[in-house]
Amino acid sequence: MKPKSSILIRCIATLVAALFVVLTVRADDDRSGVPPTITSQPRGVTVAVGQKATFTVVATGTAPLTYRWKKNGETIEGATSASYTTPAVEASDNGAAFYVVVRDSAGRVVSKTATLTVSAGEVAPTITTQPANQTVTVGQTAAFNVVATGTALLGYQWQKNGTAISRATAASYTTPATASADNGAQFVVVVSNSVGSVTSNAATLTVNASA
Fold it and tell me: Which domain holds residue 179?
């Protein structure tokens, strides 16, 4: 028969090992979360020499999300938000590849590559950031914004349910105080220049009743 002290030591060792496993599992649980997912990839942009280009990504995950943009594989200093706007481009920037690494506490994801095309001549407008859906309460205003590139000067014309809005000719548009009848209204903007025009995706206005 084995001494009681030997049995006691083995029991203690077993308990310590079990406790280590529990603590290890809990430590792993503390790092749990939702890895980031990119829901809208950066898109290629065409601009003329001397203009700026904007690249945008939309991602979800466990907050806070961090962003690190890269150009041709090299980290861009200070480019740490969901969108990145280049300095004025040069002809040598033509074909440059941009992508972004998004991180959170649970992991990382790398976006697809967006190519910068630099044209020596005039460039038709391109929308790089579409207007977003807005939700407000009756009596509040709603703001819609678009980001576009192309040969200056760019013109803007916002429309509500297919009808042009008087004096809504800037890159952003703020509605008057909303009414319940505005619920479900669709807003688009037509961006144009001397070369051509492009129409944005529709953004929906949701108007909730006041509390």
Answer: 126-208
